[in-house]
Design a protein that fits this description.
The protein is about 20% helix and about 20% strand. It is an alpha+beta fold.
């Protein structure tokens, strides 16, 4: 067996140096994982944790979701996907992660992109005109209550601007998100 210590005698090495030699492979592995995840996702953070039941039954509280930024992918809305047959997470269209109202000091939302509206178009049938272009979004478990409804508390009367979108959900890892919820980073 090959030893990491000279003369196969760990006692001749200073404890701090021994600790560095022992921990260095873990640090290199962690940095490699971070670089690979960022390279794939094109956004930071490359993953988000689901902290509510709004995406049941397709995504669950405690899931960790790897996302891909808009520089690496495009958003397929449920409306357009119905025509093509494209589905993700059990329904038509992509699930996006966005910052409500573009605010960076609030928890991002992970909901499905239902359709795109242009500025001044009604946000839903007989609804108010959109103040700007963006996505109308909806949680799979929100019983048809768009995030843009006036009383939603998420993104009232504001379509989700493209620049508010952090990424598109690509992979879901069950239960891993509980770790991030318990240990906020």
């Amino acid at each position: 067996m090959v030893s990491r210590y000279p003369d196969n005698d760990p006692s001749k090495i200073h404890p701090a140096a021994r600790f560095a030699v022992d921990i260095l492979p873990a640090i290199v592995l962690l940095l490699t994982m971070i670089i690979v995840l960022y390279g794939y996702s094109g956004t930071w953070p490359p993953a988000v944790s689901i902290i509510s039941n709004s995406m049941e039954p397709h995504m669950h509280k405690g899931d960790e979701v790897l996302i891909q930024g808009l520089s690496k992918t495009v958003v397929h809305t449920a409306h357009d996907s119905y025509i093509t047959g494209y589905t993700t997470y059990g329904d038509y269209g992509d699930v996006i992660v966005y910052r409500p109202m573009g605010l960076t000091n609030v928890t991002p939302v992970i909901h499905r992109a239902i359709y795109w509206v242009n500025e001044s178009e009604p946000m839903w049938p007989r609804g108010p005109a959109a103040p700007h272009s963006g996505y109308i979004t909806l949680g799979d478990n929100n019983h048809g209550q768009y995030d843009q409804y006036p009383d939603s508390g998420i993104c009232p009367l504001q379509p989700v601007r493209e620049e508010w979108v952090m990424g598109v959900a690509k992979y879901r890892v069950p239960y891993l998100g509980y770790l991030r919820v318990l240990i906020p980073i």
